[in-house]
């Protein structure tokens, strides 16, 4: 096998017997489809095999870390294009970081004041944990962004990517300093897996604020930063970037539900069993797959110029 071989895992999708390999989820109700990929492949409830023998490509596996780095940076640049289209950009605020595949003690981040809709691979900056530029584009980066993401990558070696923006509904819900309620299926993506950073310390120009944010995140995948915004993480930049949209949308739904509830309408929260079951299907592989439509859209409409 050559040094730059890339393997695309093929996830064979088929019906499965009801079983639970995770002791944390015990269901009193039969679950015909125990994996997210099984569910995606089912086109009706008849139990027919149509659409269930198809193969779904998964996250590629690399034998060459330099090839993997190139692939990851392309995804990262594409993620910025997605964020721009969805309107999460505001001035110079907001950043995505990705741990380097060759030197995991460094990470890549966006340059200061580059509009996300113009972002390319060649714009991205590689820095070490001291804030020194060690690769990529040699330009200024956002100090607050560095303080947040360096603390995060130091505290969480299992996290490969993180996204933080000041989106409207995320900021609005963050003003309450409360976690999301499980109001619907999409909100269950964050069931018992998002934290609230409730000690806003102003713009993170001091390293200590980044450290407090990382501490508040703890072992969770996402966080609501009170009076600030939202933070999502992932095993891939695809996962972290995708998660930002359902989190922003869940904040919007929460605000609408709160407004309706103020008039006396009762909110109906998803039961624990259903919320837990739904959450456990949101694996890193599944969240990577969810990002692909957005990535492919940006690839087509841009003509692939962000790959440069």
Describe this structure in words.
Pfam families: Aldolase_II. This is L-fuculose-phosphate aldolase. GO terms for molecular function: actin filament binding. This protein is of the alpha+beta class and 308 residues long. The chain has two domains: 63 residues, no CATH class; 244 residues, 3-Layer(aba) Sandwich (L-fuculose-1-phosphate Aldolase). Helix content is 36%, strand content 15%. It has eight helices and twelve strands. The chain has an eight-stranded mixed beta sheet, with helices on both faces. A two-stranded antiparallel ribbon has the order 1-4. The protein has a two-stranded antiparallel sheet with strand order 2-3. A hairpin with a 6-residue loop joins β5 and β6. α2 runs parallel beside α6, α2 packs across α8 and α4 crosses α6. It is globular and about 55 Å long.
Count of discrete alpha- or pi-helical segments spanning 4 or more residues: 8
Quickly give the CATH architecture of the largest domain. Answer: 3-Layer(aba) Sandwich
Task: Count the beta strands.
Answer: 12
Task: Tell me the domain tally.
Answer: 2
Q: What's the CATH class label of the largest domain?
A: Alpha Beta
Global outline: globular
**What is CATH's topology name of the largest domain?**
L-fuculose-1-phosphate Aldolase
Q: What is the CATH superfamily label of the largest domain?
A: Class II aldolase/adducin N-terminal domain
What class do helices, strands and sheet pairing give? alpha+beta
Average predicted local confidence, pLDDT: 88
Which bin fits the share of residues in helices?
Answer: 25-40%
Largest sheet: 8 strands, mixed
N→C terminal distance? 28 Å
């Amino acid at each position: 096998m050559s040094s730059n071989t890339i393997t695309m895992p093929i996830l064979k999708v088929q019906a499965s017997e009801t079983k639970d390999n995770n002791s944390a989820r015990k269901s009193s109700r039969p679950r015909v489809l125990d994996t997210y990929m099984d569910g995606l492949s089912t086109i009706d409830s008849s139990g027919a095999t149509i659409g269930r023998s198809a193969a779904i490509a998964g996250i590629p596996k690399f034998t060459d870390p330099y090839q993997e780095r190139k692939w990851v940076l392309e995804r990262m640049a594409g993620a910025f294009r997605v964020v721009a289209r969805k309107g999460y950009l505001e001035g110079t605020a907001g950043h995505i970081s990705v741990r380097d595949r060759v030197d995991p003690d460094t990470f890549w981040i966006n340059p200061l004041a580059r509009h996300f809709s113009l972002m390319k691979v060649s714009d991205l900056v590689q820095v070490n944990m001291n804030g020194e530029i060690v690769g990529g584009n040699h330009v200024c980066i956002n100090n607050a962004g560095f303080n947040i993401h360096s603390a995060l990558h130091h505290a969480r070696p299992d996290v490969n990517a993180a996204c933080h923006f000041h989106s409207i509904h995320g900021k609005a819900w963050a003003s309450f300093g409360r976690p999301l309620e499980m109001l619907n299926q999409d909100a269950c993506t964050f069931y018992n897996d998002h934290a609230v950073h409730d000690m806003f310390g102003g713009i993170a120009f001091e390293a200590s604020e980044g450290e407090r944010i990382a501490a508040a995140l703890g072992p969770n995948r996402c966080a609501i930063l009170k009076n600030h915004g939202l933070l999502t993480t992932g095993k891939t930049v695809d996962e972290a970037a995708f998660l930002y949209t359902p989190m922003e949308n869940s904040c919007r739904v929460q605000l609408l539900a709160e407004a309706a509830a103020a008039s006396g309408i009762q909110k109906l929260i998803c039961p624990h069993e259903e919320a837990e079951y739904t959450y456990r299907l949101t694996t890193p592989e599944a969240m990577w797959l969810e990002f692909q439509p957005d990535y492919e859209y940006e690839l087509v409409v841009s003509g692939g110029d962000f790959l440069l």
